[in-house]
Amino acid sequence: MSEAVAETRPGKAVEKIIDVSIWRGQGDEGRYETFRVPMRESQTVLDIVTHVQRHLDPTLSYRFACRVGVCGSCAMTVNGRPRWTCRTHVSKVVENGKLEIGPLANLPVIKDLAADMTPFFEKWQEAKGTFKPTKSRDDALPEISPQTAERRLIDAAIECINCGVCFSACDTVRWNEDYMGPAALNRAWTLVNDVRDGGNAGRIFAVAQGGGCHACHTHQSCEQHCPVGLNPTASIAGLKRRTMQAYIRGDLE
Description:
alpha+beta, 8 strands
């Protein structure tokens, strides 16, 4: 990536300037507006957006929370790619002194860079992505060994931060509005392998439907873009195997 444009002002040191195009608007109506932002050492894309909102245009809307890479709420589209902006350094993504920042794709836009996450979480509901306990609060806590095969499968998939990057990157989501998406199916996979959960019959039935795991085309965009290194495609492949096994047993029609 090339560096930002250097700008010299009388009496001041040379300052590197980035031309930042930011999506502005609500719903399907909007346009990109360009702002000139000074480039700083160790600057993140979220720092850029914050600078614009605090110093250049206070009406800019965007979403963030922790700023340290835990919550996942600051995901945006940066130079055409969905990214976790608080952990994306500008020096790694700036192209010819320019950045283009937009809201996540495949989701409605509330305003500017803030995408409506409602469809994303509705897919979790469709995939039965909530834990269904088999014990009451009066029962002893079950001991789960970290060495069991089921627990290891869960460990490989459980660190999802709900950022929506995989949902935004997924071609199948873009083509098929019924598709549950990588994050919802990845969540279903962790619960399918949870020996404490009692909801697998309904969950397997749900993910076997038309918008479930078999709609995945295995492009692996989710794995390539996941900011925490998960592989939802592998989880979805696991669901495909489990649903086929359920079909062979006669549990699915």
